[in-house]
Amino acid sequence: MATAPEGAGPLRLGLFGGTFDPPHNGHVVVARDVADALALDQVLWIPAGAPPHKDPACLSPGPLRLEMVQAAARADPRFRVVDLELRREGRSYTVDTLRALAADHPGARLFLLVGADQIRTFEHGWREPLEILRMATLVLMDREGEVAPDVAPDLPGMERALHVAVGRVDISSSDVRARVAEGKDVSLLVPAAVAAVVERERLYRG
How far apart are alpha carbons 176 and 51 in whole angstroms? Predict the structure, then answer.
């Protein structure tokens, strides 16, 4: 359990979740930008186990995604990997993860990193959105105006949401998988250690 140094303010933890199949350089850039902008003590990378809106059978095995996330997280000493969703049985819901992390880090301030595609479904597509807003501050990652103010739902607690500008890196995990399937080079799209896992396990070969 991480704790804030004696005499310092509350521990500031960024929560960065996703399937990370695979994690790529864009993930590293936005996580670092948010950590810098909000003076976060740590960014917790949280690979999803069985996300509610995706078929788990279509994902790479959890242990391999965990290994790739651990490789990507070596890019910054503030990054730490948390595997609680991979260890949890059943579907992975953000609200359950927040409860577990709040219990593990009493007194910490939690910042939940959310992209434009996620915030559009937040009110009606996420479990217990009001409880999420009670436990954490939403961080809307704004890639060159991608997150418009009117996209955010009008819910109690949304007034505390923060817009943070992050570097625009036009990479997606699906693009990486497609390039690998086509036999194309992805060495400039993912950290070298991630590429090594993809090659070793022959992931995404279709």
Answer: 20
Long-range contacts of 59-66 (CB under 8 A, 24+ apart): 59/19, 59/21, 60/21, 60/22, 60/203, 60/204, 62/86, 64/197, 64/201, 64/203, 65/19, 65/20, 65/21, 65/22
Decide: helix, strand or coil at residue 88. coil
* Cis upstream peptide for 47 (omega within 30°): no
Q: What is the pLDDT of residues 45-78, one digit of tens each?
A: 999 998 877 777 789 999 999 999 999 999 999 9
The predicted model scores a pTM of 0.91
Q: How far apart are CA 7 and CA 29, in angstroms?
A: 30
Structure tokens at 198: 């993809």
Residues 14 and 113: beta-carbon distance below 8 Å: yes
- In order of 114, 129, 183, 204, the CA distances from 132 in angstroms are 12, 5, 41, 34
Length of the chain: 206
Tokens of 7: 């005499």
